[in-house]
Specification:
By secondary structure, the protein is an alpha+beta fold. It folds into two domains: 159 residues, no CATH class; 189 residues, no CATH class. Helix content is 40%, strand content 13%. Strand 7 and strand 8 form a beta hairpin. Helix 2 packs antiparallel against helix 3 and helix 4 runs antiparallel to helix 5. The chain is elongated.
């Protein structure tokens, strides 16, 4: 193309934004795909760099051949996505298994499809925007910005953090839990993987959105300060040794007894809500939740949940191991007995109408929370003091099996399939296993 027929700066900016947006998504997804299958991760790296190179080329040298290369490459990328979603990849660990669609990959393929449309239109009519008035160009200039915003929103969305393909989602030594396979028959993320042994359902337990749980060794000074803080939490446990003590102090039940998580009794004063997100001695003395190993008045305290209204993940405890979590899409129902979550949390299929039907209201996203297993006798030796769940909080039949989602609505007090709490790590069950 000569200068007379060269694409306008608006067209070049739009194509570059679409290509760079798709490249951002591809680069962001490299780590997850590398852990699934290295060749796929490498393919994502190469795709991202091809898109970056095309974006630079279109801005610097908008030749006709460059546009044709952009069309060809983008068509290949879109076709590859369509094949994996309709028939599954032709080779690799997930071969022949159609992959689920998610927001992050739909955003990427939309950017690539837009690239094809704009590039073809430019080849056909290179000057199609040159006649636009200044006002129109100013208004249209939002489009390239919007494309980059779309890409970054997709990368930041939950679909990006749980974008693990079916067929090879489970690491070596684990297997797919059939109870957690999606209705389309695929494994959507590693929360559907359990050890390839009978762990009686513990590995299927999850607790909200969070980074990987850590249990790193700490340097002596950091460990000493953490130990000092945990000693304060044990003083709190001594003040509320039973569920009846918590109720007498104004704590109210929030949700049912759940295996791995126990029964939460909450109190939400300003000290418990902790807007700063730091763990002062005063904050440590006011956990938002006291966790009990049952639902009876004499049920013993097993741990704590600290809460924070911080806008970002809280600074929290000393060291690197306090992984804070949050919940999304929670139907909350207030009752005389306490706060209920009739459908559980983090489910994408619960609607506002469903929630209203049981007398509740929807909470899109909670604030930050962290569990602390520091109560003597309830230590989590396997997962650490900040572990997601505690294996000593199980069901009376020695398992961790929960009620189904449908059954949970009718069982607001206890979510164990057995109907009662228990400790699967006790000698009673170890002798019988």
């Amino acid at each position: 193309m000569d200068n007379a027929t060269s694409p306008s700066s608006f067209v070049r900016a739009t194509l570059a934004a679409a290509l760079l947006g798709a490249a951002i998504i591809h680069f962001a997804m490299v780590p997850q795909h590398m852990t699934e299958w290295a060749p796929e991760g490498i393919a994502f790296i190469m795709t991202g760099w091809v898109q970056v190179a095309l974006a630079i080329g279109i801005v610097m040298r908008p030749k006709r051949w460059m546009l044709w290369v952009t069309v060809a490459a983008s068509v290949i990328f879109v076709a590859a996505w369509a094949i994996t979603r309709v028939w599954g990849a032709p080779f690799g660990p997930g071969s022949g298994i159609a992959q689920p669609k998610s927001f992050v990959d739909l955003a990427c393929v939309a950017l690539e499809a837009l690239t094809v449309v704009v590039a073809v239109l430019t080849i056909w009519r290179p000057t199609f925007t040159t006649g636009w008035r200044t006002e129109g160009l100013v208004f249209a200039s939002i489009i390239p910005v919007a494309l980059i915003v779309l890409a970054t929103s997709a990368v930041a969305s939950p679909s990006a953090s749980h974008h693990v393909h079916g067929g090879n989602a489970c690491p070596k030594g684990t297997k797919v839990n059939p109870e957690l396979v999606a209705t389309d028959g695929h494994v959507h993320d590693t929360s559907a993987c359990v050890p390839d042994i009978d762990d009686k359902g513990f590995a299927s337990l999850t607790n909200g959105h969070h980074h990987a749980i850590r249990n790193d060794p700490l340097d002596p000074a950091t460990q000493a300060e953490l130990d000092r803080q945990l000693a304060i939490t044990r003083e709190v446990a001594a003040k509320f040794p039973t569920l009846a003590d918590a109720a007498a102090a104004g704590y109210r039940r929030a949700g049912p007894y759940s295996p791995g998580l126990g029964t939460h009794y909450i109190r939400s004063g300003m000290a418990e809500l902790n807007p700063a997100g730091t763990m002062t001695d005063e904050t440590l003395r006011h956990p938002q939740s006291l966790i009990y190993a049952g639902t009876e008045p004499n049920s013993p305290i097993a741990g704590f949940m600290y809460y924070s209204m911080s806008k970002i993940e809280p600074t929290g405890f000393p060291g690197t191991n306090d992984t804070w979590h949050y919940h999304s899409n929670v139907c909350v129902k207030m009752t005389a007995a306490g706060t209920e979550a009739p459908f559980g949390a983090d489910r994408g299929d619960v609607t506002v109408d469903m929630c209203k039907g049981v007398g509740g209201f929807m909470l899109n996203t909670t604030q930050w929370m962290v569990h602390v297993w520091s109560v003597p006798g309830w230590d989590n030796n396997a997962g650490g003091v900040f572990a997601e769940e505690n294996p000593k909080l199980g069901c009376s039949d020695g398992t961790y099996y929960r009620l189904s989602d449908d059954e949970l609505v009718a069982m607001p007090i206890n979510s164990c399939q057995s109907g009662a709490p228990g400790d699967p790590t006790s000698d009673e069950y170890n002798q019988n296993s």
